[in-house]
């Protein structure tokens, strides 16, 4: 465990040095754009040939039918397994209250919720999911966002969030509590629920990926704005009358 | 009864100051002055109309027309279209810009209207309004089925002479910024030809 936290300290120090580059005028820092665009083309091909056909088969457009219930249960199961890691990150950000609530949520859903297949904590105990990750922890520690990245299969990210994803795998307490097969099943459930979400919001995803004149630029802009909003880093207001 | 000179002077001064005050108030708040209540009412009214269309069960093509009409009624389409086009808007002639604006309005109606399915069975609650610099921000929360509540912020201004919204920000995602990128990319694809962009917009969305 101590070795793990040394690793984090190393990453954080490396990031603080490496991610200090300034954003360009439009608030986007994308020095790897040529490489990112290639990855984007790959991700788009994977989506159109694999993810999209799969997800539209699993969850109908109206979000009804047996498929969507299975997806919901899989999603509940997968995100329940992510809760201990989430609680650790709340603690690392110096926020004990959400860490405690997340721990209770995990305990309630793991027991009353049949190993997390159901979500009684959110429905009956007013303990909704309060998601966070190590990328956010790094932001809370003052590490800069770094350059924009589009990762193969995973999608949009930044240097800071990419490091966060790796560290999240390392510090996840579930890795110590589950054996390898159980852990992989949990990861599979999360991937399945992501595919289900893609089906439910297919109109929005299709609009960005397939109907946009520059789907790379749209994805980058929308993802960065949303992520910054999640992290409480609001952008400048646009006043078109003042231009 | 005679008025004491002192008292008279004080009276007079107060009246004068009062006049200045009234004048200042007039300058600061023109006749169509927008306030938080009015900004809020505008958004509530337009949302009610949007939901009436969503729940009407009309065929999608008719819905898109209805959404476009609501957008034209409550949004400042001129400034949104102008801002999305960027510096090129200044080079466009009046007729060219008008045609582009008309096409842009239809494109918005279709593009955002297409997502109406996500809003079936949903609810949007207007939660507040506050002044921001030279305009008002109306905040609302959208409750969509099976999804955590989403923050939706509307920016309302009366700079056009009428109270209209000119931007929508959904969970941090800024519609004006995203349309600037999109229209910019479409214009670049046509090498800056606004007439060709207008023709593309009539099909897009």
TrEMBL record, chain A:
Pfam families in the record: MlaA
GO BP: intermembrane phospholipid transfer
Family: Belongs to the MlaA family.
Listed name of the protein: VacJ family lipoprotein
Signal peptide: 1-21
GO CC annotations on file: membrane
Keywords: Signal
Gene: vacJ
InterPro entries: MlaA
